[in-house]
Specification:
The longest helix has 22 residues. The protein contains eleven helices and nine strands. Helix 2 packs antiparallel against helix 10 and helix 4 crosses helix 11. By secondary structure, the chain is of the alpha/beta class. The structure holds D-malate (MLT).
């Protein structure tokens, strides 16, 4: 019995010493979407700012597919030692209902670290798509009975969610084309291999400004400063249609609280880094305020978003498995 107690005390001492020294080697953030897309961009900017503060390199590993659930499962299974983390978004919450056989329980799988940003979305089409306004687009979609191709990052992704809400709202159908992320969706939209998508402004601002794609609406309450001519979906005829893509940093459940706290402190400071603020603003998003870059705020968001989307997804009755 004495030996067991001594071993337990020793293990606790080692754990707290390693939490104090953390991180002593590079940290890996898994992004469950393809490189070159919006989640990837946000993660790389955040990782760079956090690595300056933590004094260690932070690598990004893109593990896309199945609406982010493959990469997420990798993080859930990883050692909870602070060296494997996840940056993902609202798709974590929608996948909890869309996938009935996930290999993890989203509600309890993580030690949340903090929220990173809340990105607007834009409804866009290839540059030569016939409609010029959202109203014209709706009429066009209705007249083509699912002939229009809509790229998304798989069932459970933000682009899937936006497309699903938009199509059910306007009572039209499209043929969805799933990719491992909206980076490759954008490539095919620019190459005119697909007709349209709804993607985060963090990925679409450049192509919209360069007139490489046709933009129909932004899903925020107000217009974006850098795209003043682009109407909100509400202004363009979809009353109350608003959608933001919150992103958060998560560690696997069981990560020592001292490490989670250290990461959250670094995240809060990183979100005030002038380079990060500028780079976020350049791609049309904003850092989360300090009081939301916390474990409590991120866990609350995850749970409340599961509850918010579950009835909407169940009413639609379309599941991934
Ligand atoms: C999504 O649609 O969920 C994202 O845009 C995925 C990505 O970052 O590529």
């Amino acid at each position: 019995m004495r030996l067991v107690l001594i071993a337990a005390a020793l293990a606790a001492t080692i754990a707290s010493a390693s939490a104090q020294d953390y991180p002593t080697r590079p940290v890996n953030i898994i992004v469950p979407a393809a490189a070159g897309g919006p989640t990837d961009a946000i993660s790389r900017i955040t990782a760079l700012a956090m690595s300056k503060l933590l004094g260690q390199q932070i690598t990004i590993e893109n593990v896309g597919g199945a609406g982010g659930t493959i990469g997420t499962a990798r993080v859930v299974r990883a050692d909870p030692d602070g060296y494997t983390l996840l940056i993902y978004h609202v798709g974590l919450s929608t996948a909890a209902t869309l996938y009935r056989k996930l290999p993890y329980d989203t509600r309890s799988a993580f030690a949340a670290v903090g929220l990173v940003t809340d990105a607007p979305m834009t409804i866009i089409g290839r540059s030569d798509l016939e409609p010029n306004t959202l109203k014209e687009l709706v009429a066009f979609l209705k007249g083509r009975t699912a002939k229009t191709t809509f790229g998304n990052a798989g069932i459970g992704s933000a682009s899937h969610l936006c497309g699903m809400l938009f199509m059910s709202r306007v009572q039209a159908q499209v043929t969805t084309v799933p990719y491992r992320g909206t980076g490759p969706v954008m490539n095919d939209l620019l190459g005119k291999q697909i007709d349209m998508t709804c993607d985060q402004a963090t990925n679409t601002t450049g192509p919209i400004m360069g007139k490489l794609v046709k933009a129909y609406a932004v899903t925020t309450k107000g217009r974006l400063k850098s795209l003043p001519d682009l109407p909100t979906a509400h202004e363009a005829g979809l009353e109350g249609f608003e959608l933001g893509v919150w992103h958060g940093l998560f560690a696997p459940k069981g990560t020592p609280p001292a490490i989670v706290q250290k990461l959250s402190t670094a995240l809060k400071a990183a979100l005030k880094d002038p380079d990060l603020v500028k780079r976020f603003n350049d791609i049309n998003t904003e850092p989360m305020p300090e009081d939301r870059a916390t474990p409590e705020a991120a866990q609350r968001m995850l749970l409340s978003e599961i509850d918010r989307w579950a009835p909407i997804i169940n009413a639609a009755g379309e599941y991934a498995d």
